Structure formats: structure tokens, C-alpha cells
């Protein structure tokens, strides 16, 4: 990991709430090269790009079997909101 979350995010760290949030937070942290990502952190605040969104979604599908689309990450950029949307769409919804 190269980045320390607190160097780019001003808000206090809020740990991921459940299993899926924890998995997605770990994936986002790994792809964006941060030490950790909290449930209230924004993909944009962490400097996420469209290519990284594609990588994140591909890893989510590999690890969980759930389909995730990059546009979901763009419109639901806060981790907890993205995971809630991912859960509400089921495994193959759009």
C-alpha cells in the first residue's frame, strides 16, 4: 500500500459494517493503493479513476460472484451506498 487514507480524507474513519462491505472495502483499498477504506469514504475523494472502477468491479465479481458495474460506483461513490446498491441489485441485475 502506498497511500494513507488520512492523508487525503478529512473525515474520521468508519469501519466497514458487514461481510460484503469489508470485502468491497478491502478490494477498493487494494486497487487504489490505500491502507484502508471506510464505509463513508468516497471513491472520488480517494482519487479513483474509471480504469480503477473497472478493476474494482471485476474483483468484486471474482471474489463474491456478484455482478458490479463501474457506473454504479460513479453514481454511488460512497462505499456504504455502493455496497447497498450492489446488494439491492442481486447477483445479475442492472
Notes on the structure:
It is a single chain. With 94 residues, this protein is an all-alpha fold. It has one domain (14-88): ACP-like (Non-ribosomal Peptide Synthetase Peptidyl Carrier Protein, Chain A), CATH 1.10.1200. Helices cover 48% and strands 0% of the residues. It contains four helices and no strands. It has helices spanning 19-32, 50-64, 70-75, 79-88. The N and C termini lie far apart (32 Å).
Explain the layout of strands and helices:
Blueprint: H1 19-32, H2 50-64, H3 70-75, H4 79-88
Helix pairs in contact: 1-2
Question: How would you concisely characterize the structure shown here?
Answer:
This protein has 94 residues and is mainly alpha-helical. The chain has four helices and no strands. Helices cover 48% and strands 0% of the residues.
Looking at CATH, which topology would you report? Non-ribosomal Peptide Synthetase Peptidyl Carrier Protein, Chain A
Mean pLDDT: 92
Total helices: the number is 4
**The number of domains:** 1
Query: Helix and strand succession?
Result: HHHH
Pfam family, one: PP-binding
Domain Carrier: 15-90
Organism: Streptomyces similanensis
Protein name: Carrier domain-containing protein
List keywords for this structure.
single chain, 94 residues, mainly alpha, Non-ribosomal Peptide Synthetase Peptidyl Carrier Protein, Chain A, 4 helices, globular
